Amino acid sequence: MNHQISHELFTRALQLMPGGVNSPVRAFKSVGGEPFFAKRAEGAYLIDVDGNRYVDYIGSWGPMIAGHAHPKVLEAVARVMVDGLSFGVPNALEVTMAETITRLMPSCEMVRMVNSGTEATLSAIRLARGATGRNRIVKFEGCYHGHGDSFLVKAGSGMLTLGVPDSPGVPKSLADLTLTLPFNDSDAATEMFDACGSEIAALIIEPIVGNANCILPRDGYLQHLRDLCTKHGTVLIFDEVMTGFRVALGGAQARYGITPDLSTFGKIIGGGMPVGAYGGRADLMRQIAPSGPIYQAGTLSGNPVAMAAGLATLELIQAPGFHDALEATTHRLCEGLEAAAREAGVAVTTNRSCAMFGLFFTDKKVETYADAVSCDREAFNRFFHGMLRRGVYLAPSAFEAGFLSSAHGETEIAHTLEAAREAFRDVAAG
Ligand code: HOZ
What we know:
Layout: H1 4-16, E1 38-42, E2 45-48, E3 53-56, H2 71-81, H3 92-104, E4 110-114, H4 117-132, E5 136-140, H5 158-161, H6 172-175, E6 178-181, H7 186-196, E7 200-205, H8 221-232, E8 235-239, H9 251-256, E9 262-266, E10 276-280, H10 282-285, H11 304-317, H12 322-344, E11 349-353, E12 356-360, H13 369-373, H14 377-389, E13 392-393, E14 402-403, H15 410-429
Parallel strand pairs: 3-13, 5-6, 5-7, 7-8, 8-9
Antiparallel strand pairs: 1-2, 2-3, 4-10, 9-10, 11-12, 12-14
Helix pairs in contact: 2-11, 3-11, 7-8, 12-15, 14-15
Bound molecules: (4S)-4,5-diaminopentanoic acid (HOZ).
């Protein structure tokens, strides 16, 4: 593959932007090498500025569940944008969006649109603190809830990838209010709540961890957390920025039958535009300004073009059988990857939930953060580059979940598995 134009762009970018990128997870810092620059994308493919094509398993880090540049989404955007890009007064699409989210996520009786998942989570935490009058929050090791100060403690995603789970710049007095727990350890959660449950405003969790690769909750674990929060008057927040509308139409909360007090969303609900949302119990949401005293605002929140892209995407994923088909494709992919690894004599295991999956270089089941970080990262890095050379783009980190879209069909899976057979042989060869 020729990467001449990408290389030239990256060389210029490095002088102008920290690390040459506008978000750390895009750099190839932990896998080595240089990122490629996208020219365009269609369906399951990314096409770079040098003309190389890749089957894409990131989907812009999650929004493109219906595939890149879906004609229905592009049409909706084109239709709306001729009327103006932003109004700064209410528009009808915001109402339709709120109706859609509250219908698909019944735990959300009311919703507030924001511009990113980060905004959604930090707003939800402020609401929980304001509503309970408590300051402490609980998060989980390896979970990532965006880059709000309170969350940059033992965080996943780019922070885990770069080996800096806590960030300079976060005041210690604030970080001290963030307590952390190991994911999937019910006893540790019970102990913490027994010790100081009455001081905990919120427990925020990715119900399926997607920022320390992909880790599923053990049976009964989420219910246990729900019960603890109810008992101690703590607001349970499901961060469904990744899982929402993806692991089921109703998200992880539908899949596991749990009703959180608040939920946060992003990615899919923007269809590729910058969008986030938080929602939940009406008695909590009514405490947000202007109906209540807890302040949160945004110049571009509910932006009509973003709402149009999100609504078109949400329309597509409500087609009968949409998630079942995605789940079947993910199953074929993961089973195929495991078989290809076995053939090459490489120890690999996968986790998956509908259109979300994780690939781990280990022969053990991965159920905890400790399991995920003990996998063979060097093997992943070799595999990543082996796949990239063969036209398959995985997240450039051993600690990010992969995403499929409805545009990933037989051809793409066959190509991926063929590439994987060869890339696993590279890994085995060392
Ligand atoms: N939250 C995503 C990574 N797990 C992508 C956002 C970003 O950090 O760029």
